[in-house]
Amino acid sequence: MEKQSPLEFLYLSQEDVKAAGLNMKLAIEAVEESFKLHARNQIILPPKTVLDLNERKRGRVNAMPAYVNGDIDVCGIKWIAGFPQNPVKYGLPRAIGITILNDSHKGVPLVIMDGTLISAMRTGAATGVGAKYLARKDSETIAIIGSSVQAKTQLMALHEVLQNIKLVKVYSRSRESRELYAKEMSTLLNLNVVPVDSAELAVKNADVIVTATTADEPIVKNAWIKPGSFFSHIGSYQEEEYEVVLNSDKIVVDDWEQVEHRGTPILAKMYKEGLIKREDIFANLGEIVIGKKPGRENNDERIFFLPIGMGSEDIVVAKKIYENALKKGIGIKLKLWIKPELF
Description:
Blueprint: E1 7-12, H1 14-19, H2 24-39, E2 43-44, E3 49-52, E4 60-68, E5 74-82, H3 86-90, E6 95-103, E7 109-114, H4 116-134, E8 141-145, H5 149-161, E9 167-171, H6 175-189, E10 193-195, H7 199-203, E11 208-211, E12 230-233, H8 242-246, E13 250-253, H9 256-262, H10 266-272, E14 283-284, H11 285-289, E15 303-306, H12 311-328, E16 332-337
Parallel strand pairs: 1-7, 8-9, 8-11, 9-10, 11-12, 12-15, 13-14, 13-15
Antiparallel strand pairs: 1-16, 2-4, 3-4, 4-5, 5-6, 6-7
């Protein structure tokens, strides 16, 4: 038996996470790797647990555990709170999270780190990976519905994987918010980002459409969507007409069982109402990433993508950040105990 010694784990603040190299390129590479492992059954992914405190009005906290095998070989959990009133009432981000990694052979904690930034980046990265395989390579016009943090990371990811973007149109209910978004993202990404006065103006003629809102009503109408478009639904509820889904040539998700379990996104609602069947879901994205199923097959396909979000994505990103932090000597080592009691 190994000699027992003080048990330490690493603590990484959000500033440490950034210093350890978190950027959109790393996030996309990590999330794509997580999709590959998911498709190869190298991930244990229990259903997301939602601690519902009246999530639409007050908030919710999600527990998202996962074990990721392969070269990652780590257990972890994302514990993230989403409280819609935080920005207005308390001057805090809507989502606040931590991520914990544990050694998969001993069970000891390796690191506790800020998960807020990782969550935002990996959510954008999921759309980035989706666009890599499902959007037309020559996509030029992007529609963003929403102007929050999620809307920002969505565009960051699209900018990383699509090389021909010429115009980004953003719409949100607040004129001030969409104008600020356009200014910030134009400067950050050196793109032509313009605010528009309606969802229709944003969506019409767009090659890629992203909805990143808290709406539970059909903001986007089917009549506005052109052939060959890629639609990424990020919000937790319903942001488009049912016809948007029904008139898509392919419906892709990150994990159908997770979508169905969550119950709130549009696909889960349509399934429950008998409007779509399981066989209408063309693929989990990982199946396309590893080549088990085709992605976009022609320039006229309309493809609808709904990533519900998997804890395994956060775990893979966090593992890479943890490894970088160890190499760079970033973070604070904390003791869990000097000598374990009742051992």
